[in-house]
Structure formats: structure tokens, C-alpha cells
Sequence to fold (386 residues):
Amino acid sequence: MRSWSSLAAGALIALATVSARAQEPFKIGLILPMTGPFQSTGVQANDAAKVFLKQFGDTVAGRKVQIILRDDASSPANTRRIAQELVIQDHIGAMVGFGITPQALAAAPVSAQARIPMLLVGSGASIAVTKSPYAVRVGQTVGQSAATIATWAYKHGMHSAVTIVSDYAPGYDAEKWFSQAFTAAGGKVVEKIRVPMVNPDFAPFLDRAKNDKPSTIFIFLPAGEGAAFAQQYVERGLQKSGIQLISTHDVMDDDLLDQMGNVVLGMVSAGPYSAAHDSPMNKKFVADFEALNGGKRPDFMAVFAYDSFRTIYRALEATKGKGDGPALVAAMKGMKFESPRGPIEIDPRTRDVIQNIYIRKNEKIGGHIFAVEFATVPMVRDPGAK
Ligand code: PHB
Fold:
């Protein structure tokens, strides 16, 4: 049997380790697709980390912060392995990232087991936040934008629709919430089409949609895929057919709008962020982002990453830099602050973001194409939240 004194010594060592840890940097694992089909999300989010560090510094609540960037190349098996390594070898205090929902789902068990906050940047499927009690979604759900554009479209004379979505979880959410809101308003969804998640050939799907003669085609694709779609939309003669194209903002990504070209002018989409958002905070964010990243403008993934870091810093302040996972998540619940996209709030029950969804129209400003916001639906919750 161990003596009291050796037990006390053990306790002291444990205490010493805890306080040594407290002096160590607070490490944030930034797990992103820096290569592969979703690399634009990784690059934008990492570029936003640079802006965040420039504006807020690398110390918070007396604690040094270190960001460790790892590329998962959009493979869930990589994501899981990287998350485990970051927890076991690097002793991270939080994870940020995940370009698409399958990545978030792969990392969630690691977050749950290690009791480490995971902040969802790219994942827009409702389900992702439910997979770890330490998951917090500062970005978006696809349902927020899909339901909002459905209601808007019906009110503006579009009474029949074909939906085209990416064939995976956030696409199913987009299809479901668009259809539900559109039908509730009085509209009819005449066909629901799902396209492959990576490098889809849209031509056959667009031909099908055109033959249905709906008043609108609604589309959701994850960030980075809109440009190929716009090209085929024109090639298949959809633009001249009188069928209005509407989408979630992901298709009209700031990263791609100029590349998509004049064919997208006038198109309407719904979403939480446009680089043209008119606020002093956003103007500063865009200016700092452009200055640090060779003149490139930020997109919504950049803002989601930037706000994720702000959420962690605020939680570290609230918990005096201790960095305990459950305490950090408790501090994140109900958090409210102004973002470059407008006011945001973390629902204390679901850990999902509540935010304005803007209706935007693509227009040229100073020779560049922007999604210009012209109507606001305030503080929208995820329609799929349980
Ligand atoms: C997702 O995988 O959930 C996802 C990715 C990119 C988006 C939206 C949703 O733009």
C-alpha cells in the first residue's frame, strides 16, 4: 500500500503538471484541406488565421497561443488520424477546421473522447454539431440559406422549382429545407436532382432540369464548385430559357465570382456573408485580408475561420486562460458578437450559430463581381436543429 506521503507527492506532481500546462502555449489544431478538391476552403481559412493573429495578437488572457496547421487533403481517414496525433502528441486545447462535413464527422469522436472543443468552419450539415458535445458551429448550416431563399423565391413569383444539390449530407439538408419552405409558401418542387459531390458533369442534370420547365432552378454546391456549374449552365442554354437560377451563397462564392464571369450577373442567392457586406468591421477585415494575401478577397470560409478563432479567444478570456475543454465550451454557449458578416450568436442549447441571412444579387462594382446584399432576414436558426 502507498503511504500518505507518496500519495501527497503524486498529487503535487499532478498539480505541477497542471500548472506547467497552464504556462504552456494554448495550442489550436487547424485541420484543413490545403490540397485536393476542397483546397480553396483550406487556403481561405488559413489566410483568415493570418488576419486574426495580426488583429488580435498571439496572446490571450496571459496565455500564448500557437496555431498548428495540418492538411487533411479532404480525406476523412487523414482527418481522424491528424486529430488523434494533435491531441496525443501536441496536447492541443481546441481544433478548428474541417473543409466539408465528412471531415467534421471523422474528427468528432476524437473531440468527444478527449473533451476538446472542435469549431466547425466548413461543415454545413445539421448533423455535424450533434456528433460531439464539444462541437461548436460558428460557420453556417446549409438549411439556414436554403430555407430563406425558398421563401424569398415564392414571394417573388417563382412558383415551381427543380432542386439540384450535391449528393451528400449538406446537399440533402439543402434539398429538404428548400423544399419544405417552398412548399409551405405554396410552391411546387417538380424534381429533385442530386449530382456527384466531386467534379460533377452538370450537363445531363441541367438538360433534365430544363425539360421540366420550372420557374426556378435552386442549386446547392459546396464552396469551390460553382465555376464549373456556371460554365455548363450557359453552354446548355439555361440562361436564355427564362428559368431563373437561385442558390445558396456557396455557389456564388466570393473566391470564384470573378472567374465565373458576367453570366452570373443578376443571379440571386442567400447566405450569411458577402465580401461586399457594408459595415466598418467588414471593410477593415477585407482590407487586412487583401493586404496579407496578395490582394485576394476573403470568402465566407475565411470569415467562419476568423470568427472561430475569436470564439476561442473570448472563451479563453472568460475562463482566465485555463484552457479546460468543457469550461471553454460552456463559455462559448450563448456567446454573441459582431462579425464581419453582422451580428452572430451561438445557440446555448444546440451550439449552432444564429445569424442574419442576406438575399444578394450579383453585380459589378469597380470591374469586379460581388454578391450585393439587398434584403436581410434577421437572426436565422438552423431549421434542422433538434
Ligand atoms: C459541407 O460539407 O457541409 C459544406 C461544405 C462547403 C459548403 C457548404 C457545406 O460551402
Summary: The longest strand covers residues 353-365. The radius of gyration is 22 Å.
